[in-house]
Amino acid sequence: MPYLHFLALPMGLLVSPDALILLGNQTGRMGLAFLGMILFAGLIALGTAYSTAVLWTQFPGPGGESRGLQMALGTLPAMVLPLCARLVLLVCASTGILAIAGYVFNEVFVYWFPNLGFSFCLLGLLLMLNLLGPRVAKTAQFLFVMIALSGLLVLSALALLGSAHVPLTPATIRPAPVALLHGALGGASTFCGF
What we know:
Blueprint: H1 2-14, H2 17-30, H3 33-58, H4 64-73, H5 75-109, H6 115-131, H7 134-161, H8 177-190
Helix pairs in contact: 1-7, 2-8, 3-8, 4-5, 5-6, 6-7
């Protein structure tokens, strides 16, 4: 079970609304070329995972990453780089996800409920889950990711079953070079949760 909890943490951002919107838009713009971009982004993510694992084996314990970065790059980059990478993503991604959740709840379920009111209620629920302890928070993260993946599987199955009535688009459409660059950057940001 700890292995599944460890996987549920990065999967939380991979199945977030922002990441799914990005994937859908990029797939619509680039077609099958986006699959190559996703494979390339997956290779980058695997390289990151491998280098992080090597860093943690060389410098075990708390602060090992900082010690390794300090030996390789110096003191200032060892302090700034992890903060830039994590703090910006944490602040921007969590705020965006909360805002989107509020708008979706307002537009889809209850029209009279304020957007930011739902966002604050959701933030309060997440705070309460984290205050109940790490075990409860990890279990909730695992359950939320499984619910999101189950919903995606059901929607994908329904789309495949009903795909006989959808008109096919011509395969001769090629994306513009700017769209390819945008897709490459979008594909690389897909695994940012990992």
